[in-house]
Amino acid sequence: MVSRTMSFSRLVGGLAGIALGACSGSMMEQAKPGPSGGAPTAPSVATGSTAMPTAVGGAPGASGAPSVTVTAPQPGTTPNTSPGLGAAPTPVAPGTAAPEGPAANIDPATITGPLCPDDRIVSRVAPCHGVADPCGLNSGYEGDEYCILPPPPDKGFQIHFGPKDKNYANPGDWVMQPGEEFNSSVSSDDVPGTGTVYWDHVTIQMRPGSHHWISMSAPAGSGGRVFPQNDTGCGSGQLFGAGGFGGGQNLIYDNPPNGVPAPENKGLGRTIDRGQNVCLGLHAYNFTDKPRIREAWVNIWTVPQSEVTQFAGAITKVGGVGSLPPGQSTEVKLALSPSGPGRIIQIYGHRHSHTPRFAVWLDDKLIYDSHNWQESVTFNYDSITTNPAMNPDGTEDGAASGPLEFTAGSRLTASCFVVNDSDKTLRFANELDNGEMCNLWGSTVGGSFR
Predict the structure, then answer these.
(1) What residues have CB less than 8 Å from 126, skipping those under 6 apart?
(2) How far apart are CA 226 and CA 240, in angstroms?
(3) For the chain, give me the number of helices (H) and strands (E)?
(4) Tally of CB atoms within 10 A around 398
(5) Across the 450 residues of the chain, what is the mean pLDDT of every consecutive 10-residue run?
């Protein structure tokens, strides 16, 4: 546990909270496990030390990123923290206009609602239904509105990470006191049944204070518990592994949105072992003045094996600053090559509080542009999703729209524009305000990017 304080206005852009990837990384959709169930190949790490001027122009840099113009905050100023497009409007305040108690009319198969008219968004800041306590928890802690009801037993199952005490009277290690920041892991033994099951839709909702989550199988006997600080693999010693359901840096992640795939993604699925315990690498924080609870609900929607005809490949690259003194800026560059032709179906860029911009290019085309580090948005690329347009003035998140095909000779490049406006030297570390990372995650059909 790290105890420290951070400016609340800097941390929150309308809503506190986030939930990806390790801060050392996360995969939105990991590659299909091999017959032996082995873990994916560990990503390589890139670091950046090239000074970043206020305006970046001229020829592409070493990473191959096309030239762009970037207006970076000056040292000592506050980076942009407004929620980007794709974030839901502020929900109805719990206990006010929203109805109390369980809401039987909330369909767990969909995350749309009166507050979220766009039904093709993968990641959100807040629930769309406007109901204060859809599961009837009455926990007394922030975030009861994020609880989701489980799927019908014949359609899937729910994995719960959180206190076993349903009354929250004795939440134990799941509590975070004000000023605490944890980089550890939590486990669950809620996966019902036995044997391998196929699934094609996952919804994860987490209480505020969750920065990222990375899922993998947990060692047998882990049960449901909180692991010590810096144990991000539930005692396994791993940062990444097979047997999970991906990862993210969003309080709400729903893929495909509302369970509706694009036509070209029909049949895309994954497997999970029903007999396993599940681990969630969880970076969480509490920079409020009240205790918070670490808790997550995961709905897995299952399908017959015969309906799964495609498996996802992965986009994985971990990078960050080596050493960046106060008042200095740098551009961390990532370069990835594919194992073969295919198409990109999802991208997400992960970083911390000193990176006001994360941009990604496929060859010479800008395809992802994020300006909100707290809730780094996840974008899908398919035939039925229209993403928010990328904004030239650099204030809102945006992405290309439509299927993104690539060849065996394509190149994926990313740039994190890091500004150290603190009084400490930044290093590659899993801390929101004292460390920086530049991690690119995503999923493909066909070749994978490394």
Answers:
(1) 15, 87, 88, 89, 90, 91, 115, 145, 251, 252
(2) 18
(3) 1, 26
(4) 22
(5) 38 30 33 32 43 30 34 32 30 35 57 75 87 92 94 93 91 94 87 89 93 83 87 80 77 92 95 88 90 94 95 90 94 97 95 93 96 86 95 85 98 97 90 87 95
pLDDT by residue (tens digit) across 301-360? 999 999 999 988 999 999 988 899 999 999 999 999 999 999 999 998 989 889 999 999
* Domain assignment of residue 344, yes or no: no
Burial of 421 (0-12, 13-18, 19+ CB in 10 A): buried
Domain annotation covers residue 281:
yes
Residue 165 neighbours by CB under 8 Å, 6+ apart: 171, 172
CATH of the domain at 217: 2.60.120
Q: Which amino acid would we find at residue 337?
A: S
**406 within domain boundaries:** no
Query: Does the N-terminal peptide bond of residue 256 adopt cis geometry, omega within 30 degrees of 0?
Result: yes
57 burial (CB, 10 Å; 0-12 / 13-18 / 19+) is: exposed
Percent of the chain predicted with pLDDT > 90: 46
